[in-house]
Amino acid sequence: MATRKTIIEKSKVMLGKTETNFKSNHSSLGHQVLIGSLATLTVVSGEKLMVRIAKHPFLVFGLGLAGGAYVYKNRKAIIANATKTLDAGKNVILEQKEKVRDLIAEATAES
Q1: Which residue has the higher pLDDT, 75 or 38?
Q2: Average pLDDT of 92-110?
């Protein structure tokens, strides 16, 4: 039976990652802190903007109309992009299933 280490090594090879570049894909802690700080700043500033907008109901109604008009005008492109994204997601899932099946088949063949 294949050990956990050999399965991990084979999965790295199947994904095209060696031990050296497998670890280099991870971000540094400083980078992660910066990204988290920017995300927090975005949420807080967006929250303040939404509070201001919510105090003016006609502005909310107008933004709804503008958003609806934009979506209606670009509905075909939006639907096409959504369909393309869904198809790409399905293809990725199918490819991953196939890779897992191949990995399991190799592991069972070795044992």
Answers
A1: 75
A2: 91
